[in-house]
Amino acid sequence: MWTIFKTKITKVVGDEKVDVEDSIIREVQLTIVVNGKKIGALMAVRVELKELCAGYLISENIIKDVCDIKKIEIEDESGEEKNFRAIVDADTVKDSLDKLDLQGVIVSGCGRALSAHVSPKAIEAGYINSEYRIDADLLFAEMSKFYAQCPLYEQTGCVHTAKLYIDDSHYFIGEDIAQHNTIDKAVGKARLAGADVKKSFLMVSGRLSSEMVAKAVMHQVPILASRTASTCRGINIADRFGLTLIGFVRGEKMNIYRNPQRINI
User: Fold this and answer.
1) How open is the CA angle 213-31-175, to the nearest 5 degrees?
2) Over residues 59-85, mean pLDDT
């Protein structure tokens, strides 16, 4: 199935490393063009793209109802990454289109993060050549107490979280309803405090989508880890820019998608 990508990863269980094949979800970009006007770009899974387009147009008040849609065609764009274009012929809400002229094209990933529109060539950061390394036991330990250090999550259970670890005495927490904001908050705190983020590792609560991985690369953080999985495009970015990308950090297990050399067993 095209929505699933198979790749080799390094699985860590306790004090053992083994290379295995894993199934990764593919992430695509869907650009929406209505009556010849580009009005949005979404990061999505390549299923039910017409339905996604229709729902998006209604939720953004571009159209009033699905009956306003005369035609939706999904085009497969060429390029290094699999991208798609939805060509829509519809009766639209004029005020909403006028607003787009003022605000520009909406690019949606987690919320409306502009960084969701990821092209590795456009990331203004170089390859991560850091020789920074950590012990697997340290990552296991820090991930196990991660959520207990996030007060908004503890009180509400309704926010995403990020933690940038420098050492036992210096770490920085970011919490927000938008996942991508948590990285900027945590790293922003660290930079304002004068910390060297190139000698740190970052933990996040949510999936490792392309925009989350791109954030880590742009901040030059060498290791990014989560309790959940990465998308295919997230792995591609980590591979290109030398980021150590890790998912499913739970107990004494983890999946290292790329650059396992920074994790000592």
Assistant:
1) 35
2) 83
Pick the CATH number of 28-117 from 3.90.198.10, 2.170.270.10, 4.10.640.10, 3.10.20.10: 3.10.20.10
Q: Pull the structure tokens for residue 163.
A: 């933690």
**pLDDT single digits (tens) 180-218:** 889 988 998 999 999 999 999 999 999 999 889 988 998
pTM for this structure? Answer: 0.82
pLDDT at position 121? 52
How many distinct helices (H) and strands (E) make up the chain? 7, 15
What is 4-22+123-264's CATH number? 3.40.140.10
Q: Please state, in angstroms and rounded to a whole number, the distance separating the CA atoms of residues 23 and 261.
A: 22
Q: Which helix (DSSP H) or strand (DSSP E) does residue 171 occupy?
A: strand 170-176
pLDDT band at residue 11, thresholds of 50, 70 and 90? very high
- The predicted model gives 47-55 an average pLDDT of 88
Q: In what order do the strands lie in the sheet with 37-44?
A: 69-77, 83-90, 28-34, 37-44, 106-108
Helix (H) / strand (E) containing 161: strand 160-167
Question: Residue 187, class by beta-carbon neighbours within 10 Å (0-12 exposed, 13-18 middle, 19+ buried)?
Answer: buried
Residues 96 and 124: their CA atoms lie apart, in Å, by 32
Helices within 35-104 (DSSP H only): 49-59, 94-103
Please give the structure tokens belonging to residue 255.
Answer: 């999946």
The pair phi, psi for residue 159, each rounded to 5°, is -135, 155
What mean pLDDT value characterizes the chain?
A: 86
CB 160 within 8 A of CB 182: yes
CA 243 to chain CA mean position, Å: 14
